[in-house]
Amino acid sequence: MRGGLAEPGTVTGGKPLPLIDDDTRAYWAGLARGELLLQHCRACGHVQFYQRALCGRCLAASIESRPASGRGSIYSFSTVHRPPSAEFKDDVPYTVVLVELSEGPRMISTLVDTRHETVRIGQPVEIVYDRVSPEITFPRFRRVAATPAG
Ligand SMILES: [Zn+2]
User: Fold this and answer.
1) How many A from CA of 62 to the centre of ligand 1?
2) What range defines the domain where residue 54 resides?
3) How many domains does the chain have?
4) CA 79, 85, 88, 90: dihedral to nearest 10 degrees?
5) Is 94 inside any structural domain?
6) CATH code (residue 117)
């Protein structure tokens, strides 16, 4: 069968790629077309990330995926200066961020912009779709100018 699955062990630049399975297929397909999908519970309205079979708040199985705004703010961060493995030695320094999405859920990602010394908690960010293979597009973030609340 072609077109759907990343083969186990598929790498890009020596880095492992995530495996796509039935639970995550829609999520990765969304990213490939430029949509970060969040799950909305039809029973209680809870919004969650990552993809799960049940609502994390009320355990209802009635969940629908909707595209997120792609906007949020830096909830926490850590700049990595020492590569976790040899495949990442050309990437350092890079900043791992915990982004609080405007819809509420938090997700771990990395910043695409540099000037790591200026990263601060609370800075607004927006998603960047980093396509690394036909199947895999990573959701990453860049800092943006603050917009008026509204
Ligand atoms: Zn629920």
Assistant:
1) 8
2) 18-143
3) 1
4) 100
5) yes
6) 2.40.50.840
Cα of 53 vs centre of ligand 1, distance in Å, is 11
State residue 7's pLDDT score.
47
| pLDDT over 70 (residue 75) | yes
Which of the four pLDDT bands, split at 50, 70 and 90, describes residue 17?
confident
Distance from the CA of 51 to the center of ligand 1, in angstroms?
A: 13
In this prediction, residues 16-33 reach a mean pLDDT of: 89
Residue at 150 is within a domain? no
**Is 148 inside any structural domain?**
no
**Residue 122, in any domain of the structure:** yes
Residue with tokens 């800092």: 143
Tell me how far the alpha carbon of residue 55 lies from the centroid of ligand 1, in angstroms: 5
Question: pLDDT tens for residues 104-122?
Answer: 999 999 999 888 999 999 9
